[in-house]
């Protein structure tokens, strides 16, 4: 049985959305999808009345997500190809803290409010892919965290803070593929590595020097990717490295 869905496209006035919802009467829906539209923001009161569990936004231009915090029944937010340049304080103030899955794809987001996702204490699936994020910090995420799937694929990240994954005991899948990360260090990944099923680092210019030697004593199948440097190891898979490659390290 299909989930009941409200699907709209080509919307340029918030009042149009409000009227659409009003015409559905008291009927409740599982999902709301908005395509190819341009709005100041989504009318939270109208959306809350429908108690949507899932919101899908594709190719929509908005100044902000909502005019106020929507109903806590909203568990899934997925945004694709939407012109959002930052997840600012207005995002934090006006998105439900009950969100469990947050996906942002193909958007020009560069800046994240320092605590952008920290209030989403039930968040377990976080994907910010094909965006322009350059900086991550621990304060962005809940502490402690229930996140199991953590993806920032194809952004502009070149380094990671040592405490990024502290108090994230449920992590299973981490994807940093196609960024600019040059080091895979034990302070960042060592504490969670043994619980991970996949650590995806393909497409990064990783320097396979002494900073990655710690990985020699861990399960080799978890880490995916290839060395970007030094020259004599360029293109070698991480799994092909051996302790002999690091005998010069102290």
UniProtKB/TrEMBL annotation:
Keywords: Glycoprotein, Membrane, Transmembrane, Transmembrane helix
A Pfam family hit: LRR_8
Localization: Membrane
GO cellular component: membrane
Topology relative to the membrane: Single-pass type I membrane protein
Protein name: Uncharacterized protein
Top-level division of the source organism's lineage: Eukaryota
InterPro entries per record: AMIGO, Leu-rich_rpt, LRR_dom_sf
Chain segments annotated as transmembrane: none
Gene: AVEN_187675_1
PANTHER family: AMPHOTERIN-INDUCED PROTEIN, SURFACE ANTIGEN BSPA-LIKE
Keyword hit for Amino-acid biosynthesis: no
Main location (coarse class): membrane
């Amino acid at each position: 049985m299909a989930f009941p869905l409200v699907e709209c496209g080509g919307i340029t006035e918030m009042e149009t959305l409000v009227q659409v919802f009003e015409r559905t009467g008291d009927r409740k829906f599982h999902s709301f999808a908005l395509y190819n539209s341009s709005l100041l923001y989504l009318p939270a009161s109208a959306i809350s009345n429908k108690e949507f569990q899932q919101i899908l936004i594709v190719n929509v231009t908005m100044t902000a997500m909502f005019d106020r915090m929507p109903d806590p029944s909203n568990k899934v937010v997925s945004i694709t190809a939407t012109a959002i340049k930052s997840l600012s304080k207005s995002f934090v103030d006006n998105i439900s803290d009950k969100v469990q899955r947050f996906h942002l794809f193909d958007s020009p987001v560069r800046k994240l409010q320092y605590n952008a996702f920290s209030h989403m204490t039930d968040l377990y699936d976080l994907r910010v892919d094909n965006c322009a994020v350059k900086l991550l910090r621990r304060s962005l995420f809940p502490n402690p965290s229930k996140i199991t799937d953590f993806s920032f694929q194809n952004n502009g990240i070149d380094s990671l803070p040592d405490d990024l994954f502290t108090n994230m005991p449920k992590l299973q899948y981490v994807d940093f593929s196609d960024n600019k990360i040059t080091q895979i260090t034990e302070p960042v990944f060592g504490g969670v590595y043994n619980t991970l099923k996949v650590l995806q680092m393909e497409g990064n210019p990783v320097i396979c020097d002494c900073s990655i030697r710690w990985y020699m004593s861990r399960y080799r199948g978890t880490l995916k990717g290839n060395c970007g440097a030094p020259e004599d190891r360029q293109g070698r898979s991480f799994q092909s490295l051996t302790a002999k490659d690091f005998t010069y390290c102290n």
